[in-house]
Amino acid sequence: MGILPIISLIIFTTALSSYLLLTSRGRFLLKSLVTKIKRQEWKFRYSKPNYLKSRFLRTITIAAIILVAVIAGNTVSAVTGPSPVSLKSVSVPEPDNLGDFVADKTAAIKLGKTLFWDMQVGSDGKTSCASCHFHAGADNRSKNQIAPGLLRVNTDGTENPDSVFNVGGLPNYQLKPEDFPFHKLSNPNDPKTIVSDHNDVSSSQGIFNSKFVDIIPGNAEDKVTTDLDPVFNVGGINVRRVEPRNTPTVINAAFNFRNFWDGRAQNIFNGVNPFGLRDPNATVVKATNPIRAEFVKVSLKNSSLASQAVGPPLSSFESSADGRSFQEIGDKFGSDKLGLVDRISFTSGKGRKLPRKLAKKLLPLRPLVKQIVHPQDSVLGEDSRSPQPGLKDKTYEQMIKDAFKQEWWNSTRLIQVDSDGKRTIVKRPDRSLETNEYTVLEYNFSLFFGLAIQLYESTLIANDTPYDRYLEGNTSALTAQQQRGKGLFEGKGLCIGCHTGVELTAASVSSVAKEGRIKRAPFGPKSPEDNGFFNIGVRPPTDDPGLGGHDGFPGSNPLSEARLAQLGKFKDLLGENPPTLSPPLNSSETVFANGAFKAPGLRNVELTAPYFHNGGQGTLEQVVDFYNRGGDFGVLPPLNLSPQEKQDLVTFLKGLTDDRVRYDKAPFDHPQLFIPNGHVGNSNSVVNDGTGKAKDDTVEIPAVGRNGNSGTPNFLS
Hints:
Shape: globular
Radius of gyration: 26 Å
Structural class: alpha+beta
Strand order of the largest sheet: 13-12-14
């Protein structure tokens, strides 16, 4: 090599080194480079190549990254990006056609908050959405919160539910700190030192096992029959069922492109259920004028919160007797059968309940009549009857009419639904024993319920954390230790691989807009995957297939959008063309979906234990140990963090807490709530309430106004 090329190489190397070490963009690039090198080392360590191959490809990786950086210079936004901004700079996603449905957004938010907290929504007249989302948007209860491995499948995907309680031995167990983690090791840094392993789930108690008979208009409690629950009983007395997945927070869930752990709550809301365009029969009724109505399909994008909201009220695990529908709830205010584990609520459409009854329950009832509303409630304060419970001068019917455009409720026509599900719009009641009849307002109750709760939950945005203030330029907002933890989060800890962007999740609307709904993994065989969904080795995929499950509609379509693309069903079921991958998607290649779950955002994570989709880690320290050892089932690279680095990372995670959430300040204030915290007695004995159900051990969550309170205890604290 001549002298000029050597001099040129020295100058280039010096300039590149200066750029990487002396500029903020360069340091970020260098950190990304080190992270990618570690991933390459891990990839080859676990795919068992020889040392020379690993060394050669490691060198190629370094060269490729530097070459890209040199060619692209400071425009490598995919690597360095612009200076971070806080979550305050991110607009809350909403459908562009919302105005076709909502007449008054403020009134819709008021309706949504009322429905979310109203205990009358549940079949038992006690269970609301908030019953599982009252503490930082999640659930801090610890008695009767264990479910066995009900979502377990065989390797061929056939159902194989496990009904054995390993943690505590029986239902109605009081959890203890020493029960966690559920996968115990003698050395938390070494995944081989297994002491015990349980596939139980720490989640939320919901409803008793019962069969819906009918609503009683004006009565908060549905008419039901009680059947012995083969799983959730103590001495032959039913206890409340427990969900087979941990309860995620609803705070900041508005940023998610899809919702639920397995993503089944579709980005497109169809006005009826969580499944969007996947359900070919989902229709609502539109009144073109008061004497003319027609069945129509609706499609609202960026509405996965609405899709999510209409699932739990009809789940026979969460808040509904088996067989109820939305029109009945609204008739109370306003079928299909389920199997042992209510698998439709999580993986399939078998037992899907159509929205036919929920409306008949609520319409005659005073909203929140069992609960005091604080006179300084940030949304409902002007309607408070405090110290009397409920809202003054309000009915659900009037609240719906105030919030929604009249073409969705103003009609003299009725909808008949016969015993086979056939629907007919009629001029006058038939009163046939074979039919149920609904007003247009009752029939469309799922549309109102979903959109109103979405608009309320879209106000629950925690964006004033120390981390956000730090991103805005207040360098003292994070302590020195938290800043070290932030560096680990973005570098050695590899956290930003899944918790990316200002929302701290790759499952966000903005992430999907930037990266696409499906993409190729950046390592190994670069298999296709759904953006924002990852298998991190919490449990074996057969314990819960997660994204690897199916929607249960004809054809048993996969929940995974990458698999839909392989089948050529992407556009038909999701409403748009699949993104183009490089190399192009092959119909026979392996998709990363089995055992994959949505990456949650991390704000307020200090307040939302237990952690992961199975609730199997009780503390943030246990979570960091999990990642440090590379997960429990051989998926992640080990991090080799020192004890000090672990603590720095935990301290940073606590810097993601918004004190408005911690202290229930507006917009996180709320009405009074009564929740069951297990049952009177223990795992060996409970008190029969006279109907074959265990007597609840009820806890009051007091009403709080916009100025908040002193906070409530965290899980097991």
